[in-house]
Specification:
By secondary structure, the protein is mainly α. It has seven helices and no strands. The longest helix is centred in the middle third of the chain and has 20 residues. The chain is elongated. The termini are far apart.
Length: 135
């Protein structure tokens, strides 16, 4: 979709005239920072999936499935019992496979968003990532 010169000029004027609302109190800043920090794991995990989705390459997603699956051996080697992390891994791999096989970017994005709004699925994926990087 190409923009006309008039549209581009209008967007540029809007951009130049934009003034962010910086009238927040210290309490507002603290609340904003604490809520950003509290949601950081979810944001990082969502960003990981989103970056893979936007690559537009199912082969790249399946390469990540293979890489994450191979990490199970590392977790076994360092002493994590498989029954502790296998449910977390399953959720992550299922979501990766599901989004990789979808023919529409819109459908894949919707599946990703739906999964991350389901607390159980989201928590399992985050725990999988935490277990993978902690040992």
């Amino acid at each position: 979709m190409a923009f006309t010169e008039e549209e581009m000029a209008q967007y540029q004027r809007l951009s130049n005239d934009y003034v962010p609302d910086t009238q927040l109190s210290n309490l507002d800043h603290l609340y904003t920072l604490s809520s950003l920090y509290a949601n950081a794991p979810e944001a990082l995990a969502f960003g990981y999936f989103e970056a893979l989705l936007h690559s537009g390459e199912p082969s790249r997603v399946f390469a990540e499935v293979a890489r994450l699956t191979s990490l199970n051996n590392l977790l076994d080697t360092v002493g994590y019992p498989r029954d502790i992390y296998e449910d977390f891994v399953d959720e992550t791999l299922q979501l990766l496979k599901r989004t990789a096989t979808m023919t529409s970017d819109h459908d894949a994005a919707a599946a990703l968003l739906t999964s991350f709004t389901q607390q159980g699925v989201c928590n399992a994926i985050i725990m999988h990532f935490r277990v993978s990087v902690l040992k």
